[in-house]
Amino acid sequence: MEQDNNSEVDSVDPTEDDTQPAFPLGLSDSEAVEVLWQVRAQRRQADPDLPDTVTRLTTPEGSIVYLVGTAHFSDSSKKDVATTIRAVQPDVVVVELCQYRVSMLKMDEKTLLKEAKDINLEKVQQAIKQNGMMSGLMQILLLKVSAHITEQLGMAPGGEFREAFKEAGKVPFCKFHLGDRPIPVTFKRAIAALSLWQKARLAWGLCFLSDPISKEDVEKCKQKDLLEQTMSEMIGEFPALHQTIVAERDIYLTHTLRHAANCVEAPPNAEKVPAVVVGVVGMGHVPGIERNWDKELNIHEIMSVAPPSRFGWVLRNVFKGAMWGLLGYACFRAGKGMGRALLALPAVQSLLENTRTPAV
């Protein structure tokens, strides 16, 4: 698998699926390709009857993008995705994932549930090492939110993406693209956009999330009117967070969907023909993608991460000093022997190593 965020996931060989037609003996490779192309064309519905969650977008070249708006913990969203892909037999399927989250495509529900619930010191250290102190802790807090929803509903996130991956593998010549901005960029830009007070309020709310969630609540997330109302409430609370986590990713997803909708080459003469694309994204991104569809987009602007401010530098060094002070006090209180034992602990050594790392 390629490592850039627009990477194409290796699709399943269509000839391995038992729903594919039997080939006459003696066909050459080029003839077999043409037969499969014709089979897909016959299966593709010209005017499909699709779920209400699907939005149809077009390009000047005549390509069509069927945008499936989903709720991330919804069984009915999985059915919407399967129905759409089977009906339109796309050239490309694009999902709201980046390479940092692609592993969820091949993990079973049981493993995903365990991963979401099993938050330990090692995961915290790894998140901080990869994303920095604030972004790493925010990632852990959001994982806790995911674990809370998973526990309430008894299902793991990403089911609609796994369904899209499975169904794309059954369509001849269908490519599978990762369409989302890399999650470390999103986290870092989100943290940088919040004030210290907003960071504290957000962290507090995530730490003490305990409201019950039902499957009916999840299905309401597929209703555009209700979702837009919820978004408006969030914008009032954390406008900068909405900008980085929702609006900027709307732009990025629009860019990848338009790129996926470039014309494709049809056998036998490699003639350029309009593409058919299925995009699978959270319903909250659908209005933004529609608004951005015909606009000029500046992707470089939303991929940069600003250097830490002077205040952030001071705060980080205060935190490091406080950690050193606490360790020193622990050594003083516990005595030399206990202090040496404390400093020998792997978790403490890792924390010390992180605090020694100079700011970039």
Topology readout:
Blueprint: E1 8-9, H1 29-43, E2 54-58, E3 64-70, H2 75-88, E4 92-95, H3 109-117, H4 121-131, H5 133-153, H6 159-168, E5 175-178, H7 183-193, H8 196-207, H9 215-220, H10 224-237, H11 239-260, E6 264-266, E7 271-273, E8 276-282, H12 286-292, H13 310-344, H14 346-356
Parallel strand pairs: 3-8, 4-5, 4-8
Antiparallel strand pairs: 1-5, 2-3, 6-7
Helix pairs in contact: 2-6, 4-5, 4-14, 5-7, 7-11, 10-11, 11-12, 13-14
Descriptive overview:
Residues 1-27 are annotated as: Disordered. This is TraB domain-containing protein. It comes from Triplophysa tibetana. Residues 1-19 have a biased composition (Acidic residues). This protein has helices at 29-43, 75-88, 109-117, 121-131, 133-153, 159-168, 183-193, 196-207, 215-220, 224-237, 239-260, 286-292, 310-344, 346-356; strands spanning 8-9, 54-58, 64-70, 92-95, 175-178, 264-266, 271-273, 276-282. It contains 14 helices and 8 strands. 55% of the residues lie in helices and 10% in strands. The two termini are 30 Å apart. With 360 residues, the protein is α/β, with parallel strands linked by helices. The strands form 2 sheets. The protein has a 6-stranded mixed β-sheet with strand order 1-5-4-8-3-2, sandwiched between helices. The chain has a two-stranded antiparallel ribbon with strand order 6-7. Helix 4 packs parallel to helix 14 (346-356) and helix 13 (310-344) runs antiparallel to helix 14. The model is unreliable at 10-18 and 225-231 (pLDDT under 50). It folds into 2 domains: 36-306, no CATH class; 313-354.
